[in-house]
Every structure is written in C-alpha cells, then in structure tokens.
Design goal:
The structure is a single chain. The protein is α/β, with parallel strands linked by helices. It contains 21 helices and 14 strands. The longest helix is centred in the middle third of the chain and has 24 residues. Bound molecules: ligand LNIPZVSO. Monomer. Pfam families: 3HCDH, 3HCDH_N, ECH_1. Pathway: Lipid metabolism; fatty acid beta-oxidation.
C-alpha cells in the first residue's frame, strides 16, 4: 500500500497489489503503517483509503491460504480503523469483496462509483467473512439482509448497496476526488456514531424463526456445504453476544472452516476454473486438427425418441450398437421403430444402387429380467425390494429376489460375497480416476484441473469435493494405486481397474499436488 499526503490536510492510503489488490501481508502492513503515519502527523485531519488500477480490493490473497489462516489478524486491523481518532473514508471503484469489504466496513464512511460491486463471497471458497464481516454487516444492515448476502455470497451493485445502507454515497465521477471533498465536509462530525463495533444489531421480534428458516433454506439450497450454515452460526453470535465475544466466536468458526477439506477443495476450484480457460492440451492438438479415434461399438441407455435416434445414427454408420431399455413396452415399440427405420433406409439405399450391410443391433437382456417379471420398482410396489404399496417409499428385502439372484449366480457360476460400502466407493471412483490419469497420460486433457472442472460442471460432482483428480490427491496417490492394484488382481477381467502408467509414475513421487503432476510425469503421449 502507498501513503500520500494530499492538500487540505488529508492523507491517501492506496492499496497496490495487481491484478486485484488482494490483501497480502505486505498490503496489510502497508495499511497499518499508513494509518500510523497519519496518526502521528498532526497536520493530517482525515484519511482516504482506495485501491490502485480502478479496483478497491478483492479480499484476501486466496493463493496464500494454504500457508496461513486469513482473517484473524486482519480483523484486528479492521477494529483499529474503527477506533481511529481521525475520519477514515473508503473510496471504492471496481470491487470491494471479502476482506476488501471488511476493510471498508472498518472505515467510518464508504463512497463508491455507480459501477462498483461489493460483497462477502467467502462461502464460495468454503470459509466465512472472518475479519469481522459476520459481526459488522448485521450491525449496519440488519440480520435478514446479512443472512441473504453472507450465505449466498452474492455481490451487489452500488445502487443496491446504497439502498441497503452498506454505502453512504454513490457517484458517477471519481470516488477518490469525491471522498476528498466529502472528508472535508465531515471533519467536525463525531466519529462515535460511525463505529459499527459499538452499535448493537437491530433487534427483531422473530429473530429465532428468522434463523431457523435460514438454516432450513441453506440446507435445501446448498446441501452438504459447511460454510453457509457455519456463517449463520456466526451471525447468531453477532445477535446474542457483545462484540468482544462475537468476534471470538467468528474467529473460532472461521478456523474450523479454514481447516476443513471443503475450504481446500473450493479454493482449488477457484483457481482451477480460471486456469482451464488458458490451457490447451499438451499435445498442442486441438479439436479442429484431431483425427477421430476408431469406435468399435456403442452403448445407448434408454430407447425413447432420443435414444432411438442416437442408436440409428450409429447403426447407419455400421457401428454395432448395444441398447438398454428397462421398460418392456417401450422396448417393443423401439424394436419395431428401429427395425422399420433401418429397413426403410436399406430399401432407399438399394433403390439408389448403394450397397448396405445390416448392422449389428443387440439389446441387452440383463435389465429386462426383473421387468419381465413385472418388477418395475417403486411404481409397481416391487423391484429390487418389496415396497409397502405401489409408489410407496417403505422398502424391505424380498425373498423372491434372493431366489432370483441365487439362480442367476448358479447360471453364471458366480460366488456370492458381501461387498462393503468402502469397496463400492473405491471401485467406482478409483476406476474413474484411473481413466482420468490415462487421459492425462495420453495428452487428451491439458491438466487435472480440466478433468475436475468437467466433472463439477457437467456431471454433478459436489463442488466442495473439488473433482475426481483433486479427490485422488486428497486420498493420496499411493493409496489409490495400491487399491487399484488390489482390485485388479481380484478382477483381472475388468481393464478399468488396471492402474495406468501415469498414476504409477506420479505415485512413485509420493503424493504430489495436482499442479505438479505434469512436470513430474514427463511429456504426455498424444492420442488427438
Ligand atoms: C496483522 C497483519 C496480518 C496480515 C495477514 C495478511 C492476510 C490478510 C487476510 C485478510 C483477511 C480477509 C478475510 C476475508 O474474510 C477472506 C477473504 O477475503 S476471501 C477472498 C474473497 N474474495 C473473493 O472471493 C474474490 C474472488 N475474485 C473474484 O471474484 C474475481 O476474480 C474478481 C475480483 C471479481 C475479478 O474478476 P475478473 O475481472 O473476471 O478477473 P479474474 O477472475 O480473471 O481475476 C483476475 C486475476 O486475479 C486473481 N484473483 C482474483 N481474486 C483474487 C484473490 N482474492 N486472491 C488472489 N488472486 C485473485 C485471479 O485468480 C486472476 O488471476 P490470473 O488467473 O490472472 O493469474
């Protein structure tokens, strides 16, 4: 941060840490030093705080989170500003997010450009606004709006922030110039009413129900995420405890989240999302230049209108299709429709003199066996289980199924054994992760981050688990390798379980973080 003496007995503290003026130790120390200089200079009557390059501050430097716990010590600085004996005015352009807004809440006044955005987006990183945000915001704008902004993390534009009372002035001109003028106008005003830490949270008669509704809402809206619920607990502390104790509770809850696996995963996702746009596959191939891989057969699940169309496309291209349809009626309709479509195609081709060989179209019967016995699941009151009634939800084991399975085992010479939840999870996930390592080894994906972002955005993988490749690093690559080896030895007929060479190379280095994988595993092949 830079310190400048301005005309009219003012000082300017300007945060400078490109690209977004994130709060690093150096920036925070710069702010403190600036405040000390301005305090000891008797000619300085007020201080303006702003950010360089048209951005106020995007909060804590997220890349430093793995090294330190953000928030806790910066909260002390926010309190020092509030207690400061000279007016401090925040001049906001661009963004004031997270610790950036907490810094501004510590200031006695907040002036912003009309296009500025402010907010506390910490929940998206698996943490909470831990530098007084959960204690100061409700004192300023009340509990209901604080709950909304902190649990959603949504930033608001300057106009909305003005209406809510987060900002004092919104202008279309330069906020620093405006703050300079403004500072001279408020020099004689008492500072005490501007110190949020000495205010109490506006009380409401139905506070208990507001909080219980908030808990219910976040459980529904963000299932599995720790940060939104923990933020509500911190806001409860703001209501129920004096400031001195409220900040201790905020600190405790912030530490709990910061140490959680969710925070690590969500912070990984933050950087993964911005890095994937900048990466291209290491093979330097692109989809425009790639040559197609041979396709030997295709599986289609479901034979509704879409499934039939897809099956037809491949069949017409002469690629064998295996289609699965669990509803026997739908299966009959599909068989007729596909056969007649293929015959029409064939006769058209024969008329035009082109040769046509009948493609292989095989329907798997495995899923049909239960359905053929009228067992369509919950809707018919029986499937793998017996239900209390058709469409009922209460299920119990069905002796019919045990009989069916023992016959099935006999026919297919299978031995029965119990399979733990752990094994189910490991065999499903580790084979998927193994495929991810193959994709990396083949140079098809540019980075583990690319695979993870595809899983988060396209396959409903929980964001707070960071994606399959990040998960592998969480479990430990040597563990994943050892388990795959074990399952492959037990099931040599399942090629997905055979550990990939890429995984073996990486596991030989212990458990390196995903960002180091490519440099450690050496140049990838290129299947593109
Ligand atoms: C006594 C002294 C103690 C001192 C301790 C020192 C530590 C200080 C601790 C402060 C405590 C604060 C506690 C607080 O409650 C916790 C937080 O503040 S968490 C952070 C909250 N902020 C955010 O979540 C903002 C995240 N960023 C964004 O939303 C967007 O990046 C943006 C700011 C809106 C800008 O968007 P765009 O214009 O689209 O640009 P990009 O997204 O591409 O970003 C550009 C570039 O900047 C990097 N970046 C963005 N924000 C941060 C950040 N907060 N930290 C680090 N880096 C950031 C981003 O990755 C891009 O980088 P590039 O890809 O270009 O390398």
């Amino acid at each position: 941060a830079e310190y400048l003496r301005l005309p009219h007995s003012l000082a300017l503290i300007r945060l400078r840490n490109p690209p977004v003026n994130a709060l690093s130790l150096a920036v925070v120390n710069g702010i403190r030093e600036g405040l000390q200089k301005a305090m000891s200079d008797h000619t300085i009557k007020a201080i303006v705080v702003c950010g360089a390059n048209d951005k106020f501050c995007a909060g804590a430097d997220i890349s430093s989170f793995s090294r330190s716990s953000p928030g806790i010590s910066f909260g002390v600085v926010v309190d020092e500003i509030q207690r400061y004996e000279k007016p401090v005015v925040a001049a906001i352009r661009g963004v004031a997010l997270g610790g950036g807004l907490e810094l501004a809440l510590g200031c006695h006044y907040r002036i912003a450009h009309a296009e500025a955005r402010v907010g506390l987006p910490e929940v998206a990183l698996g943490i909470l606004p831990g530098a007084r945000g959960t204690q100061l915001l409700p004192r300023l704008i009340g509990v209901p709006m604080s709950l909304d902004l902190i649990t959603s993390g949504r930033p608001v534009g300057a106009d909305e922030a003005l209406k809510l009372g987060i900002l004092d002035v919104v202008i279309n001109s330069d906020p620093v110039e405006e703050a300079v003028k403004f500072s001279q106008e408020i020099l004689d005003k008492p500072l005490e009413p501007r110190r949020l830490l000495n205010k109490s949270v506006p009380s409401l008669p139905n506070m208990d129900s507001i909080f219980s509704e908030a808990f219910a809402k976040v459980q529904k809206q963000y299932p599995g995420f720790l940060a939104p619920e923990t933020s509500i607990q911190a806001l409860q502390a703001a209501v129920n405890l004096p400031y001195k104790l409220g900040i201790k509770e905020e600190e405790k809850l912030a530490l709990y989240l910061q140490k959680s696996g969710q925070a690590r995963a969500l912070q990984y996702v933050f950087f993964a999302e911005s890095s994937v746009h900048k990466q291209s596959p290491p093979s330097v191939a692109s989809w425009q230049t790639a040559s197609p891989q041979p396709i030997s057969s295709v599986g289609v699940l479901g034979l509704g209108t879409m499934g039939r169309g897809i099956a037809m496309c491949f069949a017409k291209a002469g690629i064998p299709v295996v289609a699965v349809e669990s509803d026997p009626k739908q299966l009959e309709i599909a068989k007729k429709a596909v056969t007649s479509m293929l015959e029409r195609e064939a006769s058209k081709m024969q008329q035009s003199g082109r040769a046509w060989t009948k493609p292989t179209l095989t329907f798997s019967s495995s899923a049909d066996m239960l359905c053929e016995s009228g067992r369509f699941g919950q809707k018919t009151g029986k499937g793998w289980y017996q239900y209390d009634k058709p469409l009922g939800r209460v299920h119990r084991p069905d002796p019919w199924l045990s009989e069916f399975l023992s016959q099935y085992r006999e026919t297919h010479h299978l031995e029965s054994r119990s399979i733990s939840q752990e094994e189910i999870l490991e065999r499903c996930l580790y084979s998927l992760i193994n495929e991810g390592f193959r994709i990396l080894g083949e140079g098809i994906a540019a980075s583990p981050e690319q695979i993870d972002i595809i899983y988060l955005s396209g396959y409903g993988w929980p964001r707070y688990r960071g994606g399959p490749m990040f998960y592998a690093a969480t479990v430990g690559l040597p563990v994943v390798l050892e388990k795959l080896q074990k399952y492959y030895t037990q099931n040599p007929d399942v090629p997905q379980l055979e550990p990939s060479d890429y995984l073996k190379k990486l596991a030989a280095h212990g458990n390196p973080p995903p960002k180091d994988w490519q440099s450690l595993a050496g140049p990838p092949g290129s299947k593109l």
